[in-house]
Design goal:
eleven-stranded mixed sheet; globular; alpha/beta; 19 strands; binds L-homoserine; 34% helix; single chain; six-stranded parallel sheet
Length: 382
């Protein structure tokens, strides 16, 4: 099967390169911006790709919702299988694309959009056929894991480790989505859609690592904690779905603490299977390209979809997930949260809260920040 590639950035170069040696797959044209067609395989006309009957599949690795969505619809309508690494696209338009792919009888696969090289969605889609998925989670953003790991093990500052993550090709073009937790949130949205037929688009909560400081990291480290940005999803007690992202403080020995550099650790718990943990590189050229290639090879074996026909958009409910938090905030505001312990020094308070719901915590911090307060918080899951 000849594969056209849309985009020739970090991942596009990897996909095109891997196609040269993949069984049953062939390098097709690569779509680039007008004026960038400096090699024979590069073209700037999508129409030429879609009208080429020898192209069987399109791999989109450009990122962003538009024009990727328009191109995806056009490719599916032209009868081409569609594979993407684009989580923003699938989080925003996945239900619509799933419907269109089914109408057109083409594949719509996006392993690379969640976990990079880690075969998370693929295994989840298989597991949900025969088991009940109780919960989902783990570390699904390579950039922030790389940053938190380097801040802790190498004692580096936030700005330096972010620049390194960008240079290494882990971060998005605009790293705001990585450090704000939005990138990880999009990934847990996709995992929930695969596991529960519900793509949560409302009621979601994400806290990133933008407000963490070297002093916070030193404080956790001195108390035996490691900080990681962790995604959580699952069935709530009332049958709904919860989905959120927040920094978590973990004790040495927790599996997440062994996730270093740009690695991801995806986890699901099946009622019968128990806990399944998958680890590997979650970002970067070759790990991400390997997942795109895995999907393309899957098409040759008859794989067509990750979302079921019933998958629909809906709301997440994070009111029922409850745990304690570490919070660093101005000392004058320490009374704003239900604290079990408080340490104050130099105008700063570091407190451990009583157990509270994820929704209540995220809303409380939003209100404090609206008053101009500098706040960092992380869940404590012992
Ligand atoms: N920026 C993303 C990350 C790339 O750091 O995980 C892979 O999705």
């Amino acid at each position: 099967m000849k594969v056209a590639v849309l985009g020739y950035g970090t991942v596009g170069v990897g996909v095109y390169g891997m196609l040269a040696n993949a069984a049953g797959l062939e390098q097709g044209p690569v779509l680039v911006r007008p004026g960038k067609e400096n090699e024979p395989f590069k073209v700037s006309s999508l129409a030429a790709i879609l009208e080429d009957p020898t192209v069987g599949a399109v791999a989109e690795v450009m990122g962003g919702v538009e024009p990727a969505f328009t191109y995806a619809c056009a490719a599916m309508r032209a009868g081409k299988h569609f594979v993407t690494s684009n989580k923003a696209l699938v989080a925003a338009k996945g239900v619509e694309l799933n419907r269109l792919a089914r109408e057109q009888g083409v594949a719509f696969l996006f392993s690379a959009a969640c976990g990079g090289a880690v075969p998370f969605l693929h295994n989840l889609a298989l597991a949900r056929e025969s088991d009940t998925i109780l919960s989902l989670g783990g570390i699904l953003n390579g950039t922030t894991n790389y940053m938190l790991d380097a801040m802790q093990r190498l004692g580096l500052d936030y700005a330096d480790v972010l620049a390194d993550a960008q240079r290494l090709g882990y971060a998005e073009a605009d790293p705001t989505a990585d450090v704000s937790g939005l990138d990880a949130l999009r990934k847990i949205m996709l995992a929930c859609a695969v596991a529960y037929d519900l793509l949560p688009t409302e009621g979601l909560l994400n806290e990133g690592i933008e407000s963490i400081t070297a002093a916070d990291v030193a404080h956790f480290q001195a108390r035996g904690y490691t900080c990681r940005l962790v995604v959580s999803g699952g069935r709530s007690a009332d049958g709904g779905v919860y989905a959120y992202v927040e920094p978590v403080l973990l004790r040495a020995g927790s599996p997440e603490c062994s996730v270093l550099e740009n690695y991801n650790m995806a986890r699901y718990e099946g009622q019968c299977a128990g806990s399944i943990v998958l680890m590997g590189q979650g970002a970067g050229r070759w790990p991400t390209a390997s997942a795109v290639l895995r999907d393309l090879s899957g098409i040759l074996r008859g794989e067509r979809s990750m979302f079921s026909a019933a998958c629909a958009e809906g709301a997440a409910d994070n009111g029922g997930s409850v745990h304690g938090y570490y919070v660093r905030l101005p000392a004058a505001l320490a009374g704003a949260l239900p604290a079990e312990s408080v340490e104050k020094e130099g105008g700063i308070a570091r407190l451990i809260t009583a157990p509270m719901s994820v929704k209540a915590m995220h809303e409380a911090v939003k209100a404090l920040r609206a008053q101009g307060a500098a706040v960092f918080f992380a869940a404590i899951k012992e």
